[in-house]
Write a structure and sequence with these properties.
The chain is elongated. Helix 2 crosses helix 4, helix 4 crosses helix 8 and helix 6 runs antiparallel to helix 9. About 9% of the residues have low confidence. The chain is built from 9 helices and no strands. Helices cover 77% and strands 0% of the residues. By secondary structure, it is mainly α.
Length: 191
């Protein structure tokens, strides 16, 4: 028996594939937050994330007739979202090595220590993620922020599952290496 939520999504997809914009609007509303989160983690800029999300949902609408019912809609949408994020980043040329060098950590005198530490950690992770290659970043973001399984990532990115696992392992090692100096510095500064 099909789960009622899945049945509802399948019905919305079928209606949307027949041109029902209201059904597609319901699908967008149910997946908007996850798509925005994945795109934001890909590009690190909320304005770019909004632009890329809008582009992703427009692409999804135009390609909806090619969606195969029975496949994971979330994975399909996230693949489109990742590609839209990468396209927007390429067009905007927002990310370069010098951009990361000019980013600074917040001033420790700016507010409560715990909130400051949280912001510092968040910024350090965001910068580290943005320095990953597109391939590594895509796999990491879909797994850690999109919540996709290895199989769903493989399907979304159209790569073998072994490649997903090796890229994810590589991305995690790169993040660990990039974040270690920040962690050590925070420990030294904050005892």
């Amino acid at each position: 028996m099909v789960h009622p939520a899945m049945e509802s999504e399948a019905q919305l997809v079928a209606r949307a594939q027949n041109g029902d914009r209201n059904a597609y609007g319901d699908l967008v509303r149910s997946h908007h937050r996850g798509v925005i989160q994945v795109i934001y983690r890909m590009c690190g800029d909320s304005e770019l994330a909004q632009d890329a999300a809008q582009e992703a949902f427009l692409r999804a609408w135009t390609h909806l007739p090619t969606y195969r019912p029975g496949t994971n809609l979330r994975s399909w949408l996230y693949r489109i979202a990742v590609n839209a994020a990468l396209d927007v980043l390429r067009r905007e040329s927002k990310i370069s090595n010098t951009d990361f060098e000019t980013l600074t950590m917040p001033d420790p005198q700016a507010g409560p220590e715990s909130e400051l530490l949280k912001k510092e950690r968040t910024l350090a992770v965001q910068i580290a993620i943005l320095t990953l290659s597109e391939a590594s970043r895509s796999v990491l973001v879909l797994r850690e922020y999109g919540g996709l399984t290895y199989q769903e990532i493989a399907a979304a990115l159209e790569i073998p599952m072994g490649t997903v696992m090796s890229r994810l392992n590589y991305a995690r090692r790169q993040l660990k290496s990039a974040l270690l100096p920040h962690v050590l510095q925070l420990e030294i500064e904050n005892g």
